[in-house]
Write a structure and sequence with these properties.
Largest sheet: none
Helix content: over 70%
Number of domains: 1
Strand content: under 5%
Radius of gyration: 17 Å
Order of helices and strands: HHHHHHHHH
Number of strands: 0
Length: 239
């Protein structure tokens, strides 16, 4: 993606990532249950949507973060379905699946090698970067379900959220300049988002249900990005 269309890594960015993870968790479940396309058909449609978004972004001549965040939501939606398929249909042991996914993220992140610079700016976001983002989403789905199963959805959501806050507060600018810290934070946000999204949709006290929870988390995601405008970026770099 062109550098001008990629958001800066700041507090707004991490709020966006967390709420995209929560929304994507609900949207992925709703998509899998109600689309009627099945895993294969559903993923093919999401791949097509990602391709359209990526192609439109390449021709964009004005700075628009919309493309980046659309890609994030599309990938997170697909990752939810892939994670559920690997864990519950293929029944891959979690002791193999979780570290295996972590290795995939590390390998793709190394291949992507975003040019993190002072000032908390993402450099190139090529296909390897988006592959790592997909891997982080799948990892978060599997690890989040595992945490919810052992600790309960509420405690897992709160606990992982606090760990993420501590990580970002401790890392400060390093989350935008160090590759390992950035991807650890992304994977943790995806994991916490899975627990939070499932807890909101399935909580018996709230009685929201999956459709309403999806609508509310989607509205929260859009509201954050709309009312908390990002800093415009002028430099152009495609990958």
């Amino acid at each position: 993606m062109q550098t001008q269309n990629v958001p800066r890594i700041d507090r707004r960015y991490w709020f966006g990532i967390v709420f995209a993870s929560i929304f994507g968790t609900n949207l992925g479940d709703l998509y899998a249950h109600d689309s009627g396309l099945g895993l294969g058909g559903g993923l093919l449609l999401l791949i097509a949507l990602f391709g359209v978004t990526y192609g439109a972004e390449a021709r964009e001549r004005h700075a628009r973060e919309l493309y980046y965040w659309l890609a994030i939501i599309i990938i997170r939606t697909g990752a939810t379905n892939i994670g559920d398929f690997l864990a519950y249909r293929m029944r891959i042991p979690l002791l193999l699946l979780v570290p295996g996914l972590a290795g995939v993220i590390a390998g793709l992140a190394w291949l992507a090698a975003p040019r993190f610079r002072a000032g908390a700016a993402l450099g190139t976001t090529n296909l390897a970067y988006w592959g790592a983002m997909l891997g982080a989403g799948v990892f978060g789905t599997v690890a989040g379900d595992m945490c919810s199963h052992h600790a309960g959805q509420g405690p897992a959501a709160i606990g992982l959220g606090l760990v993420l806050v501590v990580l970002l507060a401790t890392a400060k600018q390093r989350a935008g300049t160090l590759l390992a810290v950035y991807w650890c934070a992304v994977a943790l946000a995806r994991t916490a988002g899975t627990c939070m999204g499932d807890w909101l949709a399935e909580n018996r006290m709230l009685h929201l249900g999956l459709p309403l929870s999806t609508g509310l988390t989607g509205a929260a995601f859009v509201t954050i990005l709309t009312l908390w405008p990002g800093t415009r970026r002028e430099a152009r770099a495609t990958a």
